[in-house]
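Team,

Forwarding the record for the chain on the shared tracking sheet. I've put the sequence and predicted structure together so nobody has to dig through attachments.
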Amino acid sequence: MSLAKRFVVAVFLIAAVAAVPTAGARQAGAFPTRGIFVAGTSLAGIKLGDTQAAVKAKLGPRYEVFDQSKDVVWLYEYQGGEPLGMGVRFDKNLKVVALFTLGTPVGWKTDKGLKLFDPISNVYQYYDTANESRCIGYDALTMPGKKFTSAFYSAAGIVYGFALVGPGQNVCQ
């Protein structure tokens, strides 16, 4: 990795660590300081098809609404100025159709041990197949499933995010 890329990654890591609160026990209805991504299943305990009430019960009421013409997105963000946290997209029936991390929240990982900030090549150590999708400013290694697509976001050669999307949803969030 070139010196310039190392510098960019180092600055990114320092900013991300400074913006995340210290770890603590998760209470019911509280946004987790350390989320777990289970490919094909859930992100931070939220599953595709969950209702808004179920999301609020698990993650709490501290979210911002991003209303699009087609869908509504709830953004759960840590305090600190950086957009770090998680997004939850709902369809017109108010059911979860996509889940994704915002930025690179420190401490988030998969149930198999892949961590944010790991080299993107580590995805292949934990998961059998992955296709590549080009998004604006980043890439997504995707694993299509029967009902859902799991995605591992990459920038500058590192894993910087996770997503779980339903049919008809774009992995480039």
